[in-house]
Amino acid sequence: MLKDYSITGWPAKTKLEENIRPYYQYQFEISFVHDILLRNNRIIIPSSLQLRCLEFLHRGHQGIVKCRARAKTSVWWLGLSSQIENLIRNCPQCVEHQINFKEPFLKDSFPERPWQKIELDLFKIDSWYLIVTGYYSRFFEILKLNKMTESVIIAKLKTLFSRFGIPEIVRSDNGPQFQSEFKKFAYDYDFHHITSSPYFPQSNGCIEAAVKIAKSLIKKNPGGLDLALLAYRTTPLECGYSPSELLMNRKLRSHLPILPSQLNKDVNAKLVFKREDKAKDTSIDQFNKRHRARNLSELKQGDSVWVIDLRIYGKIIDVLREPRSYMVETNFGIYRRNRYHLVPAPYYILSPPLISTLPQPQPSENSVNIDSKLMNKSSREVSTNVTTGIHNSSDNVVSSPPWSVPPLRRSTRNSKRPAYLKDYVT
Ligand SMILES: [Zn+2]
């Protein structure tokens, strides 16, 4: 029919059959040349051959943009563009090797006063240390831990809070040292405890910077840390004030000679806010430009996903209050992950109760790195629950993609928990 119309001319749209009507808008681009139906220079592929053609377009598993670009030089049919997108979103090879774009940095508002919002972390240099830093002042305390338990950490914080007061917001990672006992501590001491997604340093830049400085001070000053800390605390930050001035509204006396009148100078809070806000905007801008950041789609409860860093499939069971944070149920436990680590895998069906028929995660370079990272930093342990036992099964759980290209063949090995995940499940 298309062929006839392209030769004899098109009737009015209302006179067209239902199935031809969508082509009406392309009537001036459709032609019949040398027995081939064309839209401009692209061959119009009949429906019986479209599936094969899609496979050819996707050969090599290039991304959506590249597949569309290939199509633009060769073939066309109605709905091709969305079919390409669907194909790639439902292709396990593509999903399992996807690297997400960085998302635009979320601006964390600068606190109104010192010690209002603080952040904690744990790090190890021979011994374990607890580090506590204020968002406002960047004044940090390093506390050596003889035992890495929730109660030891809480005891240290109580001492600290008796000195500086109780902050309003305390931020930490989601490690085992900041769980039930810590939540009770937060309730008793009346502060709000917020946590960040594991392995997502972008969300906790303040503490990352403090840990870096602290580690360097410890390594460079094996004879004693006190004066090194005093030097850091009395050195002006970019805003012009030192951490001690920002926290205590006075300069601390050190070995460096200073006019006594300088020790008593007030901090101009408005100026601090203005400068910090501007610095923040600049660095966010730079980050977004450098990483060509763009927003990833929001996920919802029940969505199937591929967890990039763990190399396993899972299902979103909770959308957390913290931005871009999700709880993901997998056959190996429940994990909290930032959107950055998740790729939608709509072809993957996980229905409760979880059936343990997922393909075995592939130990890869990436996963080995994660393993060693975990071993070295037990505070980053992420699992919060055990979900199911592991059964052996050879069922294939990859369903047909919605647009009905036959499912890609998957390995049907027995599902076995990989060794590198052993520390995840409690
Ligand atoms: Zn693919």
TrEMBL record:
UniProt biased composition (Low complexity): 393-402
EC code: 2.7.7.49
Region of interest called Disordered, as start-end residue ranges on this chain: 379-426
Top-level lineage group: Eukaryota
PROSITE patterns: INTEGRASE
Comp. bias intervals (Polar residues): 379-392
GO biological process assignments: DNA integration
Residues covered by the Integrase catalytic domain: 107-268
Molecular functions per Gene Ontology: nucleic acid binding; RNA-directed DNA polymerase activity
PANTHER family from the UniProt entry: INTEGRASE CATALYTIC DOMAIN-CONTAINING PROTEIN, PROTEIN CBG26694
Protein name (Swiss-Prot/TrEMBL): RNA-directed DNA polymerase
Native source organism of the sequence: Zophobas morio
